[in-house]
Design a protein that fits this description.
two-stranded antiparallel ribbon, 57% helix, alpha+beta, binds zinc ion
């Protein structure tokens, strides 16, 4: 007799499974369910159930190439947001030690040691010099 684990492995063989879009949709569904506990809306429940069905459909799908394209599209939107949020947390964490300024010429974010007042900064990437003012 087959064990439950081997039956599950056999069932999932050739199916897509979970990816970043799957987890994002899962977090969204849980968030919608939590919000719906407060507002008790039929529309919100319908939307969260539709997302849940889509999530289940995607993870059991055998059309792996199409699911990968969907995930890549999601990551194209998600990765810049993730990068900005990470930078925001890093800026907050290092608020007593560093200041972050964008180079006006190459737009690269520079991490500068705190030096109060006006001073010149040279970008290590494009060698452009620009003035930086640190007040606090
Ligand atoms: Zn630069």
């Amino acid at each position: 007799m087959e064990s439950l684990k081997s039956k599950l492995v056999k069932f999932m063989t050739g199916r897509y499974g979970a990816d970043q879009l799957y987890y994002a949709m899962l977090v969204l569904v849980v968030g919608l369910i939590l919000v719906n506990m407060l507002v008790d809306s039929v529309i919100l429940m319908g939307v969260s159930n539709a997302i849940l069905l889509l999530l289940i459909f995607r993870s059991f799908s055998r059309n792996i190439s199409k699911r990968r394209v969907e995930n890549d599209k999601f990551l194209k939107i998600w990765n810049p947001i993730k990068r900005e949020v990470k930078l925001l947390f890093r800026r907050f964490k290092e608020i007593g030690v560093h200041r972050y300024r964008k180079c006006p010429s190459c737009k690269k974010m520079l991490r500068l040691p705190i030096k109060r007042g006006k001073h010149m900064v040279k970008c290590p990437t494009c060698q452009e010099k620009f003035e930086v003012r640190v007040i606090v």
